[in-house]
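DM from R.C. (forwarded with permission)

"hey, sorry to bug you on a friday — could you get me a structure for this? deadline for the figure draft is monday and I only need the backbone to look sensible"
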Amino acid sequence: MYDKEPMTLGLGGNPDVYAIDFDAPSSRHYSEEEWNSLKADAEETGAPIEPDLSYSNSVWGNLALRDGRNAAQLKPEHADDSAEACARRAQLGGFRSSQLWGSEEKLQVKTVFCILTDKGNVVRAQITRFIGNDPGDPPSQIEFTATMWSRSSG
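My reply, with the result:
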């Protein structure tokens, strides 16, 4: 498990996808062909794809939770630092995706995500910074600090 690990999720050109697997932990860039192949393999086997969170579409900036996970999007004052509270919030959260440009409800620095990964771990990921946030464009990178707990130790 890890505590306040810095992580970055980039944004490439369309139709590339960047994704984080909090269980590994790792961040990776996927071409359209690689991403489509990964999704096709997951559908064929019935197992979720490895990455937990993806960031794609250089026009709109779509941050999305992948299938097989639960998550909550929280304001920092509503986000507890314990594994148990974060897991409970994730179970009830309902976060699926957010568009970082052109939407009324934009994500803010300090927004917290409580995530239950496909491996059953609990992650608390807080946005610490947006990079390249030019007017008219989504951020080119989203920086997080993430803490992961094993579900069994929570």
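R.C.: lifesaver. The chain has a mean pLDDT of 91.
me: no worries. The beta strands are 2-10, 17-21, 26-30, 53-56, 62-65, 70-74, 97-99, 112-116, 122-131, 141-149.
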